[in-house]
Amino acid sequence: MYANSPPAHFNERRYFAWNDWVKRTHGGRIQKVSLDAGFTCPNRDGKLGRGGCSFCNNAAFTPSYLAGTRELHAQLATGIAFMQHRYTGTTRYLAYFQAYSNTYADLAELKALYAQALSHPGISGLAIGTRPDCLPDAVLDHLAELARDHMIELEIGIESCDDNVLAECRRGHDFACSVDAIERAASRGLQITAHMLFGLPGETRASVQTGARKLGALPLAAIKFHQLQIVRGTRLAMEWKRQPGSIALLSLDEYLDWIVDTLEYLPDSVRVQRLGSDVPPTQRVLPERGDRQLDLPAQLSARLSARGTWQGRLHGASS
Ligand code: SF4
């Protein structure tokens, strides 16, 4: 039993855009101010591995305004000033613990860092990006406590729902680990954003469609989609250098179809927060690829329309 048409809250986009949700529930705009709080991750410090996931180079998406200081208030002040200039109509700023795995430290250290960010007068909440295997119950309990008074968004790097793909990119955890973390976080009332990366070696349209059914069953509040880009300084870049063309990158059409395939199985309540990566051209091995951010929402709506579908149309279909 599926819906016959897109729900009204999609505003004719055929998917539930995060910005529309923000406008409706908070008024104005919410911007995330990226932070580098000095974390590392277990896939880099030797606990699970060294060298990181095959696609990862955090420097590629760390804003330049973070260079030079680790002091959180200084980073927040610079980031807010930058965003006030660029995005008018912003009503709230979230401190975005973005670089590396931002729950990978002792609880006391985490509490101090989160409290420091929340004490900045311009900040009304936190967005915290992390791996699913860095979310012990004690950390989730603390985040749930913070969420009583602040907007707290927990962004969990799932990347792929296929264990072979996760192993191939040396992720160091499987999909079951993501399911477990998401369920434990959601049981505490936390808002969870899934971070997905499409186009990793070994991923296929069929594996994405299988994964979509699994994602659709999870208690997600939001989702972010990214297309694989080969970023300088990564294992994939080394592989590309050894054998140019050895990694098949998704065309725009393929990428949009994979997003559509996924959205069809997600509930219509899941906010679509991001539609693509925007690694600076100088950081990419193929600089001509990837500069499509502004066009993606319209292109996705057009693709959903051309396929006669919308987010949630198949939600609840058995696998
Ligand atoms: S993607 Fe995340 S988990 Fe993987 S190496 Fe980079 S920081 Fe670590």
From TrEMBL:
Top-rank taxon, per record: Bacteria
Stretches of the chain forming a coiled coil according to its record: none
Keyword tags: 4Fe-4S, Iron, Iron-sulfur, Metal-binding, S-adenosyl-L-methionine
The name this protein goes by in its record: TIGR01212 family radical SAM protein
Organism: Uliginosibacterium sediminicola
Pfam family, one: Radical_SAM
Cofactor or coenzyme needed: [4Fe-4S] cluster
Domain Radical SAM core: 25-271
InterPro entries for this protein: ELP3 (IPR039661), Elp3/MiaA/NifB-like_rSAM (IPR006638), Radical_SAM_C (IPR032432), rSAM (IPR007197), rSAM_horseshoe (IPR023404), rSAM_sf (IPR058240), YhcC-like (IPR005911)
Record SMART domains: Elp3 (SM00729)
Signal peptide: none
